[in-house]
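Researcher: Let's do a round of design. I'm pasting the structure tokens now; please hold your answer until I've finished.
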């Protein structure tokens, strides 16, 4: 996912790419809430399984500010937090909500959900996403 300067992910405005590697891409960005420059890491997802019935993806956030990047769910899905963590979720319409995930407490999402997820956790946060096809 290449982001152009000016693109926004939640409160972060992309100003320049910094690099890419095995875990994802890193951008210089401006945190518009705190009015400061930050490095924003966009994680690569890790697809553990992809069959005709489901897709299992593991997301690992290593620090606050790590983000999934904007994505749209084509199917209904279940998220199972492996660790706890606080996240900011920005919907395609710009609405923002804070979400506290509790390890082992799954929640459901619906097909068509279009959002960015940014970690606010100071420690590593991991969740497994299971999309249910058809």
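Researcher: That's everything. Go ahead.
Model: Designed sequence:
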């Amino acid at each position: 996912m290449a982001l152009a300067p000016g693109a926004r992910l939640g409160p972060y405005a992309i100003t320049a790419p910094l690099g890419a590697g095995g875990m994802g891409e890193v951008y210089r960005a401006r945190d518009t809430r705190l009015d400061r420059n930050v490095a924003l890491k966009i994680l690569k997802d890790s697809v553990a399984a992809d069959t005709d019935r489901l897709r299992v993806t593991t997301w690992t956030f290593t620090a606050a500010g790590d983000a999934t990047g904007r994505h749209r769910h084509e199917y209904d899905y279940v998220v199972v937090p492996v660790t706890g963590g606080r996240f900011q979720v920005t919907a395609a319409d710009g609405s923002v909500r804070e979400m506290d995930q509790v390890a082992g407490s799954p929640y459901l999402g619906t097909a068509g959900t279009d959002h960015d997820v940014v970690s606010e956790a100071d420690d590593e946060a991991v969740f497994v996403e299971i999309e249910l096809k058809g």
